[in-house]
Structure formats: C-alpha cells, structure tokens
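Thread: quick sanity check before group meeting

JM: Hey all, I'm pulling together slides for Thursday and realized we never actually wrote out the predicted structure for the chain we discussed last week. Dropping the sequence here so it's in one place. If anyone has concerns about the input, flag it before I start.
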Amino acid sequence: MNLAGRQQVRRLFAKQGVLRSRELESRGVSRVDLARCVEEGVLIRVGRGLYATADHSASENHSLVQVAKRVPNAVFCLLTALRFHELTTQSPHEVWISLAEDARKPSLDYPKLRVARFSKAALAVGVEQHRVEGVTIRVYSAAKTVADCFKYRNKVGIDVAVEALRDFTRKHRGGANELARHARICRVARVMQPYLDAIG
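JM (edit): ok, ran it. Output follows.
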C-alpha cells in the first residue's frame, strides 16, 4: 500500500479507534488493502472483523468496544453496567447486554454474551453514551442499573443488588431522586425500600 493509502487509513482511525472491516470497505479501503495494512503493521486485528492502528492501546473496557461495534443496538446492562460504573466487586465473565424482547440474539464467538430481555419502555430509558477507545458505547445510567439489578435479582443475586445500592448511595449522594424514578419505572420501589432504610 502506498503512502497516500496509509495516510487515508490513519485518518479514518483518528476519528474512531476501532473499525469493522465493512466500515473500512464502505470508505474505500478494499479487503486487499486491509490485508496489506495488517501485513505491513499499519493495522492490527483486535477482534473478529475489527481493526485498530498498531499503536492502539486497549482499555479495561475493550470487550465492550468489541460488542458495541458488532451489536450496535445493544445497551450494556446489569453486571457489565455495574462494573462500568464501579458499583460492584463482581468481575463478570460474560458481557451483559439488553435487547428488545423480540430481537434476535447475536452470535459472537468472543466475548461471551449474556442477554437480558427488556420491554420497549424499559429498554429506552436511562441510556447514556460514553466514548471508549474512540467508539461510542451505550450503557444504562448508574441509577437505572441499580433498579434493574433489583428487578432481575433472580438472575444477578440479591446480594449483588444490595451491594450496588450501597455503593450507589455512597458515590452518588445527590442521586436519590433519580434512583427513586427508575425504581418506579422498574416497579421495584417496594422491594428496594427496606434495603434503603437499612442503609440509611
């Protein structure tokens, strides 16, 4: 690949840290050019069909970047969102995502996914956008995640939900109203109240 081609590739990655091969193709980088960039050390393969520049440094949330690129409609939830917001000591082996009840489950070889089905109303509320490695990821807010953990306590465990609630009240002292709003939306206000009383 000539110098102009390499510069074009670097410009593409300056805006987004990780790109899919199909995104590169749609921007004029052929499969042959892509293979040559990898061979010459300009790019590295960071996941199936995902590429970054050779000097790209992966963050602790790199698995979220991989999922966001390959499952763009997913929102990170429950244990993964708790970890992202530093509201748990848990270190999940799977990446938890929420999808609509009728959405097809994506098939990824890596990372392993755990899918939670949310109603359309629950799916849309409390979504935040964050930039990680130059890629926009969607994750539920800390308050929404705590409420979700109580709603899905049979999946994550009540101990995890209570730990998240305790950490949230300590880290987000002004977040009581937002937490109460999401508890009402998730219909877990009564379930959460005794734990809030005990913490308070």
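AS: nice. The mean pLDDT is 88. The chain has two domains: 3-53, 63-199.
JM: adding both to the slides.
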